[in-house]
Amino acid sequence: MSAERKPALLAASPSPAPSFADDESRWQALVQRDLAADGVFVYAVQTTGVYCRPTCGSRLAKREHVRFYATTPEAEAAGFRPCKRCRPHQLSLAESRQQAVARACALIGEAEVAPDLKSLAASAGLSPYHFHRVFKEITGVTPKAYAAAQRAQRVREGLARGASVTAAMYGAGFNSSGRFYATSTQQLGITPRVFRAGGPGVASRFAVGQCSLGSVLVAASGQGICALLLGDDPEALVRDLQDRFPRAELAGDDAAFDQWVAAAIGLVERPALGHQLPLDVRGTAFQQRVWEVLRRIPPGTTATYTQIAEKLGQPRAARAVARACAANPLAVAIPCHRVVRRDESLSGYRWGVERKAELLRREGARA
Questions:
Q1: What is the C-alpha separation between 72 and 344, in angstroms, rounded?
Q2: Separation between Cα atoms, residue 91 and residue 271, nearest integer Å
């Protein structure tokens, strides 16, 4: 298969953003007042002795008078003073918003009962409407959905420690059993009692095989493949599965499941061919949206985390997209290996960057 790079996915999305690694790309970002450059570098003007953000609204200086610095201390050490208009030595608007959202997330995580929107917005110094929009842009989910995910995690931890369903429910901050049971299956992926019992009937069958990339674990529920894990140590893969579903059983004499396992291993060997495997995909609403976009990335092409966030209509949710990729339990079947950084370099991969590079090579996306 040709190793020539194919066109990137998502024609409606812009090309991957530059990394601003050299003075020429920094100058172009300055000319365009590129928001993506804010916080990456500052520029100084020799004729004024002032340094600014690349998004500063001041008049553009001549190129020969401009110098670039990676940090504000470097600019000040070179004898330049901060611009009084853009205040480059202080937090940018994007940075202050990120810190405000981080504080709100901490408040949600620490509170026994989820704070209401008005309280969270007040802690961030924003109106409820503005806070709701900013929170969703940065995290990829609404404050309410984030709080629900935190409560679901507390329930999981309580059930895993052996607590009763009732104790885990109230310990997680639910004040109504009706409200809890109305959403419990969606939040946990299974019913609370089944989760507490270790997942019987969910990951009911699994098998471990070998392929050219190492060990492969395939697990299935009654609905389809629910886990496809890659690794070097088959025992570690089994432990990974059984940490979540302690009662999953090794499959034997199951011809239909054996065919699924063979197809899954074949997918790893030749990912460009795609698959017809039935999948049982479980995750949060945001994860499901990200994974659906990933499944539409054609073999042999790649997309950046930012492009995927833009495709979801949430251009500032690139980090949330990265977390959803890291949580993907179905290697290759949900092709998170086709997602790269905005400079097209390979980022972390749950099953190893070397495997990611090899999967892309097999698809013809990289040499």
A1: 27
A2: 44
